[in-house]
Amino acid sequence: MNEAGQRGFTLLEMVCVLAIIAMLSAVLLPMIPRQTSRARLQAYALETAALLKSDRAASIRRRVEVATLINTATRTVRSGVGAAVLRVPDDVDFEVLLPRSCNQRPSFSTINFFPDGLSCGGAITLARADLRLEIRVNWLTGRTDIVARPYATN
């Protein structure tokens, strides 16, 4: 079919190559891990702050102490009054700063809220390459804030 001296590919060969590339893309692209976007990181911070605020409100409303559990091993923040659990993805840096004790008791891995609205405080940091968000619970007022910090590179 090809005369001597002609070079190139036939239309059928090109279509076959494109079909193979399309099939490989359809199979392999979903398997490529995706990084957490800046917007998604901000959403995780908002969800975490909302969970903490909800636990504080429940503590005031029910007149009982509520402890929000933070587990760095499983990368979760679990509500002390409901079934809400937030899991932080593996590509997000997840750091927690908590007091050693709260009301003369060991604090372990909780942020405690009291019926008068107070708290023992704590901070949860969510970070990725270009953004660092700190969710802070004020130890005196129980207020929850999100503070953006530049990501420090050493």
What is the spatial order of strands in the main beta sheet? 3-2-1-7
N/C terminus separation: 64 Å
Tell me the series of helices and strands, N- to C-terminal.
HHEEEEEEEEEE
Number of domains: 1
Q: Segments where pLDDT lies below 50 for 5+ residues?
A: none
Indicate the mean pLDDT: 87
Specify the CATH class: Alpha Beta
Going by CATH, the homologous superfamily would be minor pseudopilin epsh domain
- What Rg is obtained from the alpha carbons, in whole angstroms? 25 Å
What percent of residues are in strands? Answer: 25-35%
The CATH topology comes to: minor pseudopilin epsh fold
- Return the CATH architecture: 3-Layer(bab) Sandwich
Structural class: alpha+beta
Describe the protein's architecture and organization.
This protein has 154 residues and is of the alpha+beta class. It has one domain: minor pseudopilin epsh fold, CATH 3.55.40.10. The chain has 2 helices and 10 strands. The protein has helices at residues 11-28, 38-62; strands at residues 66-71, 76-78, 85-87, 93-97, 101-102, 105-106, 110-113, 122-128, 131-137, 144-149. The strands form 3 sheets. A 4-stranded antiparallel sheet has the order 3-2-1-7, covered by helices on one side. Strands 4-8-9-10 form a 4-stranded antiparallel sheet, with helices on one face. Strands 5-6 form a two-stranded antiparallel sheet.
